[in-house]
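[audit] Reproducing an earlier prediction to check determinism. Same input, same settings, fresh worker. If the tokens differ from the archived copy the diff job will pick it up downstream; this log only records the rerun itself.
[audit] input (112 residues):
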Amino acid sequence: MRDAVWKSCSWPYSANHHHPLGEFVDRMQRLVRPGGVFGAEFMMPVERRHHMIEHYTSPERLHPHFIGDWEVLLTLRTTEFTERPHVGQLHDHTHRMGLLLAARTPTLTDHF
């Protein structure tokens, strides 16, 4: 188990679409020790087609995955912004990003 687990923008990659988003979140959560932190930077839907892919998500859609022994500490979102061309995306394109930080509740033995 780890003190912190961080994920940055990989959920919407097409190679990940054969796994439900909840499966990714659950696997990451299981890596975080009680008292540890989970962080995710993610792409939010911008284009119509994005709304059909659960991997383009939002803080509101992620929040239900953090019940029980989790406390959501912070959620943020950007407005839409234009990114210049790069490998895999040869033209200017639009993004909207979100961030979620959550802490796993410590167990009683973590306090001693």
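[audit] rerun output stored. Observation attached for the diff report: The chain has a mean pLDDT of 92.
[audit] end
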